[in-house]
Amino acid sequence: MIDFGYKIQADRQINLDTTDKDLANFVRKHENSFNICIGCGTCTASCSAGNFTNFNFRKLQLFICRGEIADVKTEIAKCMLCGKCQLACPRGVNTRNVIMTIRKGLEEQL
Amino acid sequence: MNFDWFVLPFSIGLFLLFILVIFKISFWIRQLPLNDRLLLNKGIFSLKILRVIKEVILESLLHLRIFKINPLLGFMHMSFAFGWFMLIAIGNLESRMYAGTELNLPYYPIFFKFFIHKPLEIPFAEGFTFIMDFFLLLVLSGVLIAFSKRIYSKIVGLKRTTKLKAFDIFAMLSLWLIFPLRLFAESSAAGMYHTGGFMTQPIGNAFAGFLPLDTLSYIFWWAYSISLGVFFVCLPYSRYMHIPTEIILIAFRHFGIHRSKEYDIFKDVEVFSCSRCGICIDKCQLNTMAQVTNIQSAYFIKSIRKKNQQEEIVQNCLICGRCQEFCPVGIKTDDLRLSQRMIFENKENANFNYLPPQTPIKTEVLYFAGCMTHLTPSIKLSMVNILKNSKIPFKFMDEEESICCGRPLMLSGNTKDAQKLMQANIEIICSSQAHTLVTSCPICLRIFKEEYNLNINVLHHSQFIENLITEGKIRVQTSTKTISYHDPCDLGRGLGIYDEPRSILAHTGTLLKNNFEKNNSLCCGGSIANNQNYNLNKDKISKQVIEHLSSKNPDIIATACPLCKKTFVKYSDIRVADIAEIVNEQMILLHSS
Amino acid sequence: MAKKVVVIGGGIAGMESSAYLAEMGYDVTLLEKENSLGGHLRNWERLFPTMRLGQEVLDFLKLGIETKVNVIRNANILKINRIDKRFQIELERGASFNADALLITTGYDLFDATKKEEYGYGIYDNVITSAELEKMFMEGKSILTPTGKIPKKIGLIHCVGSRDEKVGHVYCSKVCCVTAVKQAIELKEKLSAVEIYCFYMDMRMYGMHFESLYKEAQEKHAINFIRGRLSEACENQDQSILIKVEDTLAGRPLKLSVDLLVLMVGFIPSKGTKEIGKLMELEFGTNGFYKTKDQHTLTNVSNIPGVFFAGSCTGPKTITNTVTDARAAVTTVASYLEGYNLEIRTKAFFQ
Questions:
Q1: Which of A30, B27, B52, B361 keeps 20 to 30 A from B226, CA to CA?
Q2: Domains defined for chain C, CATH in brackets
Q3: Which residues of C306-332 are buried (b: 16+ CB within 10 A; e: fewer)?
Q4: CA angle C223, C260, C48 (to 5 degrees)
Q5: In what order do the strands lie in the sheet with B457-460?
Q6: Domain A22-109 annotated CATH 1.10.1060.10
Q7: Contact between B528 and A80 using a beta-carbon 8 Å cutoff
Q8: B-chain residues within 8 Å CB-CB of A107?
Q9: What residues pair up with C155 in beta bridges, in sequence order?
Q10: What is the domain range of residue B217?
């Protein structure tokens, strides 16, 4: 199958009426800069982990916002927290703290 | 027997203090691991104890380190500690000499002047009264400075002094009251019986002129005793616990008690040794440049003590090391902060199984640019060029892809995950059989040196370049350019590398002095160790740091860290360059003959 | 006697406003720090979206100031004194001018691309700026890379120095997207075999006919538009430039080697804007351009009575916007000098 870069979830559609927004809201609350991403992809292109594996911080962030959090835990485990994306982000997203906050959010939900 | 009911508050207070302090200290010692307890035993009965005593005198009593940083503040602490100590010591001597070898109760020397009214008939009696008055005056001058500092902190050169809670103020007032009350009590005694020294006698005489000393004197003695008693009971629960604890800390240090990364007994002793003198507050750029006033080490340490740890306080710190550098008690505030971060963060979150097996690279010198340096390509290209020109065989370890050194994870408080990255890099470094590892990033350098346990030379590129220049492997032209140098935190305060960058820059141009150099250098603000309000604080800080560095209008602002460079570029109108770039530009190409 | 107006800055806004003010009967002096008028317009061969020559617009502007405007070139301002309601401007070489009103048209500078180090400008030979590409167009020679090759693949990077918190310029420069489209088309016209890739964050085709130019670039010239912002550029062995982006629509990292990398540099407040602002204590907005008294209604008015703004000294503007703004500034200056009733409205509303 051609990998279009996103997986077909169980539902064909993202149903924003019903998706789980808890994690997104948790991160928003604790690291406000989570909100200011414009999806330019600089983080992902510069990513140290991304040199070795298909870790995509932009998509991770986007999927959390859309409530698609099934793969977040395994994906986020790939981050080395090196901070390169933080140095590259044109919007000033505090990426390291976003990652740390997502991890915390996942823990609290368990 | 000399007794009066008013001695009770003092005596009970002292007794409780004694019990509580002994309890606390024995708790610490019992909690120490066995080998540390053995070290402690060995230390007490070795010559090391002399060094402990020396440091206790110099620091706990005379407060020399505070003197060096801030003379007036040093005088204040010295006047309290040394002045009071001398009052106690000489008071004891005086009373003992008077009463012969009789075993006195502890209150007797303290209230000596209440019990003994006639001029003393002991040798040097005049001298004793003079000395006792002198030291009382010394302590009172300290009280006056402390009081003024609370009203207007700039009087001792501090922008802000430590903010206190109600209980702290209560304890502080009880301490402050002791000495004026002692003055009043002794003066009134002197006024009534025509004794006293150069200070107590005239004051006493003046009192006698218009005050009913018969009744008032007794009230003064009561008040004096109560203030002492209250202070003693407050002491173990207030910041004044630092008085006994600092001695333990000094002993721990000299006896070589082990420190771990986690919050341990050593760190607990450090926490109780903090006097909240406020020097850390004044050195903290988040305070002076970004108006963040609740996270400084004094408050952070207090929050540990109160077991009221808020994540914001733990995380909002640049870990720049400025407060640690100037802490007069020598508390390792950075390690303390990281140990608290570990409580929140040290969990196995990461999975780096995707890292491919590395093909060994055999070489003599291994160059590791670091993640950040890939965003400042001019630095890494300069290093590659310098290495090529030196003709030393080298390999670029992370030319294509960097495995993070692990320090960013470590700084976030996650040593478990950091360990995994370290292991991956150690394998590459060891398999290369290189004798030297050179890196451009002080953040990487620090963890390479402190945690990797590599048996090879680990150098920052400034050290490596300096070697190349002294060994004649590269030659650098001088220029007329003026250069202002910024010490990166991890390179300077972190690893003590101050001279090599300066020596190189002296080769390449004229090095200008600025107000914040070496261990007093400022943090650029871009520290990835700060996880809170990153941009807000960073911008405020780096803007002001650039102003300092630009003040003499240099041609170049030089630094030796890709993160500092990237942070400065945003605000600097003057060119910001890494040492490697400057050297590369002015390198005379050697032609192989 | 005619009232005097001094216009500072001889770019588009300065020229056009001088022309109108002079025609309205004011005694106008136009101060230009360089030896020739026209500002940045002199450096642009063709203009978006019409592709007409910049020179034509320049000629038009020059016609306006030919006779009635006192043009002073190489004018470096030393001092501006304010005496009551009048201004006295002293130049470095001694001359001095009086004015009843000042119109500041100090314009913009282009972002210094060396500040975006990871993009390789000033480090790798084959990385140039949009201004340098335009210069190549102006010179009319065949398009070669700085290392002397005919480029087969060219990358155009939008938003260099714009919308970038890391270099301190968080605003959109407005013209770079459409300039990229324009330059891509021109490159394609000059080098038919070339492959062109534009890397953008958002295509901001807000102006009249911009969108059709964008469509033309896709339809007629097969220019590739990739939604992703450049993270790093490095140099290959053959001196071509390897760029790393994320193709955000495909959701995957992407790398591409190009023979020439063109950085679309944005607008920053000009050195002159900063200097005159400091000299006169004019207020700056958060982005470093002059702050106008009201964003909607007093777009040419400064914090000092009698001092007015026109053009891109208050923020990035296209040529069209600048010409319009210059004429708007003229009415504001005239209203102030003549004491129109409208001044009463302004005062009543803002005090």
A1: B27
A2: 4-107+270-350 (3.50.50.60), 113-267 (3.50.50.60)
A3: bbbbbbbbbbbbbbebbbebbbebbeb
A4: 50
A5: B394-396, B365-368, B436-439, B457-460
A6: yes
A7: no
A8: 347
A9: C197, C261
A10: 9-237
- Shortest distance, CA A64 to any CA of chain C (angstroms): 15
* Whole-number pLDDT of residue A110: 61
Contact across the interface for A80 and B404, Cβ inside 8 Å:
yes
Question: Which contiguous run of DSSP H or E holds residue C81?
Answer: strand C77-83
CB–CB of B374 and C115 under 8 A?
A: no
SS3 state of residue B521: coil
Residue B577 has pLDDT above 60, yes or no: yes
Subunit contact C232:B376, Cβ cutoff 8 A: no
Q: Give B232-258 pLDDT, tens digit per residue.
A: 999 999 999 999 999 999 999 999 999
CA distance C8 to C329: 13
Give contacts of C202 with chain A, Cβ < 8 Å. Answer: 38
Q: Which two tokens stand for residue C58?
A: 């320049």
Same domain, B326 and B293: yes
Q: What is the mean pLDDT of each run of 10 residues along chain A (110 residues)?
A: 58 84 93 94 96 94 92 94 95 94 86
Q: Give me the pLDDT at residue A19, please.
A: 87
**Region B138-156 average pLDDT:** 90
Who among A79, A82, A103 is closest to B371 (CB)?
A82
In angstroms, the separation between the Cα of residue C319 and the nearest Cα of chain A is: 27
Give the torsion sign (CA, B147, B151, B155, B156).
Answer: positive
Q: What is the CATH number of the domain that holds B550?
A: 3.40.50
| CATH number of the domain bearing residue B393 | 3.40.50.1860
In this structure, the answer to whether residues B229 and B291 fall within a common structural domain is no
Share of chain C above pLDDT 90, in %: 93
Residue B106, pLDDT score: 84
SS3 B266: helix
| Residues B406 and B495 occupy one common structural domain | no
Say which residues have a Cβ less than 8 Å from residue B569's Cβ, sequence separation at least 6. B576, C115, C117, C167
Residue type, C55: Q
CA neighbor of B74 nearest in space, from B84, B64, B83, B82: B64
Q: Quick one: pLDDT at residue A11?
A: 66
Q: Which two tokens stand for residue C318?
A: 């296209």
